[in-house]
Amino acid sequence: MSRLAAAVSPGRSLEPAVERVRLAERAGYDSVWLSQLPTERDTSIVLAVYAGATERVGLGSFVFPIYTRHPTAMAQMAATLDEVSGGRFRLGIGISHKVTVEGMWGLRLERPVEAMREYLTIVRGLLADGSVGVDGAQFTARSGYTAPRRADLPIVIAALGPRMLELAGELADGVALWMCSPGYIERDVVPHVRAGRERAGKSLDGFEIVAALDASVTTNVEGAREVFRGRFERYASLPYYRSMLEASGFAEELARGEITDPMLHDLAGMGDEAAVRDTVRRYRDAGCTLPLVGPFTQHEGAAGFEATLRAAIS
User: Fold this and answer.
1) Is this model's pTM higher than 0.85 or not?
2) CATH classification at residue 68
3) How many alpha carbons fall within 13 Å on the CB side of residue 51?
4) Among residues 80, 176, 255, 309, which one has the fewest Cβ atoms lying within 10 Å of its Cβ?
5) pLDDT grade, residue 314 (50/70/90)?
6) SS3 string of the chain?
């Protein structure tokens, strides 16, 4: 069976989310991932709950924004969550966006690739060596970690543009992608990641390309499209995503203010079970090593989260 991951958010109630995580484990999913959104629960604590409710399925953050935790605190959290889960945790980290970092938190988002390089160096040093001494332009750490740790705990970073993708290839174990079409993955992500790997004297072997995609088994495809269209529109308004979407071949449509049905179907699986599985296949064929399926409903005719979860892996 090919590897597949599931996105399971607790939403309004944690208990049903735990049952969905258990379902993903029973169905044979490789891992369950959870985003850290700025106004919702602490993802590290929710993942600890998921860990206690399961035995085998991997657990990942998709992703923790780096500006809300100093890198020494991120390493402490990651090592602790990995210990609690019996070595099942995968750390995903990302820059976030200027509107969040500066507008919500009152911090400065400057030179993001430099910031991520320093941050990742500190986190990696603490996990791998148990100590670190870095005096960076944006992040500094002179610290240690004496509790149990897994030196090779996998770290993936969220990346969209060429420089961040190459940094992921150079220093990380994988890349976390969202709103990236199969075409963009094949034409842009894989070559830039490969360039970063080659710079570090490494091949693509073992490098994880985690690509999140929305999916809905439904008898009401138009209703599903309208749900996903709103999601697409929100992310297209953010500069990092806008640049990536334009590079994906959607520049003319976006310039006209259009979000067409083909654009939506390029990124999400909507329709019967075969449509969902075909979307997962297209992502695999483009170079995604771990498709991350996010079932959605919110419209009449949707078969439900569990039905989509089962369809994607069947």
Assistant:
1) yes
2) 3.20.20.30
3) 20
4) 255
5) confident
6) CCCCEEECCCCCCHHHHHHHHHHHHHHCCCEEEECCCCCCCCHHHHHHHHHHHCCCCEEEECCEEHHHCCHHHHHHHHHHHHHHCCCCEEEEEECCCHHHHCCCCCCCCCCHHHHHHHHHHHHHHHHHHCEEEEECCCCEEEEECCCCCCCCCCEEEECCCHHHHHHHHHHCCEEEEECCCHHHHHHHHHHHHHHHHHHCCCCCCCCEEEEEEEEEEECCHHHHHHHHHHHHHHHHCCHHHHHHHHHHHHHHHHHCCCCCHHHHHHHCEEECHHHHHHHHHHHHHHCCCEEEEEECCCCCCECCHHHHHHHHHC
For the chain, how many structural domains are there in total? 1
What tens digit of pLDDT does each residue of 79-95 get? 999 999 999 999 999 99
Range of the domain at 143: 5-313
pLDDT digits over 132-159, tens only?
A: 999 999 999 999 999 999 999 999 999 9
